[in-house]
Amino acid sequence: MRQVRTIIGTAAAIAGILALGITIGYFVCDAQTVEKLCVPDLTITALEVDGDQVTDFEHEIRVPCRIAVCGESEDLPNDDDLSIWICVMPPNGRYYAQREPIEWQGKWELSNIGVGKEGSDDVGKQFSICAVAAEEKATECLFSDAAVYHRGLPSLPDGAVICDQIVVIREDESSWS
């Protein structure tokens, strides 16, 4: 019985250390001090939904699980340290960066953006699609979460700013067949 308690206690201690390490990683990432970000002219111009482009953002937009986001960036500073990211924010309020930064001069498009989980769990829920400009340190944080953890960030890291945002409602996949 004592050996079982020791094994359980050791496993709990290891799990606690791992959780602490991950949490500290997020706080270190969020607490990066970077230069003040100059907000660029960055806009989302359309959502591509099942082959159709949606450009009217004044009305409720219903989307399936996967969409494309189109946009434009003009008069951005000629700065290799600046990246553009698309982040999806579900009802849990976390920011989920999508795969990698996008090419940032002129018109751009990023396809296969995940809006919630596949299936019916997220149907009817509201999501924000955010165009984010990020400096180098913020890009490292976004890339780390997108490529390694993909648990979402509780807030955007210092040096990242939302330049445009579109609110969508997740629709049932059968509506798009």
Account of the 3D structure:
- The chain has two domains: 1-31; 35-176, Immunoglobulin-like (Sandwich).
- It is 24% helix and 34% strand.
- It is built from two helices and nine strands; from the N terminus they run αββββββββαβ.
- It has helices spanning 2-30, 136-149; strands at 41-49, 52-54, 62-63, 66-74, 83-89, 96-97, 106-114, 126-134, 160-170.
- The strands form two sheets. The chain has a five-stranded mixed β-sheet.
- Residues 1-36 have low confidence and may be disordered.
Distance between the termini: 57 Å
Which CATH architecture of the largest domain?
Sandwich
Mean pLDDT metric: 76
Instruction: Provide the helix percentage.
Output: 10-25%
- The CATH class assignment of the largest domain is Mainly Beta
* Element-level helix/strand string: HEEEEEEEEHE
Number of helices: 2
Taking the sheet with the most strands, its summary is: 5 strands, mixed
What descriptors fit this protein?
single chain, 177 residues, alpha+beta, Immunoglobulin-like, 2 domains, 4-stranded antiparallel sheet, 2 helices, 9 strands, disordered N terminus
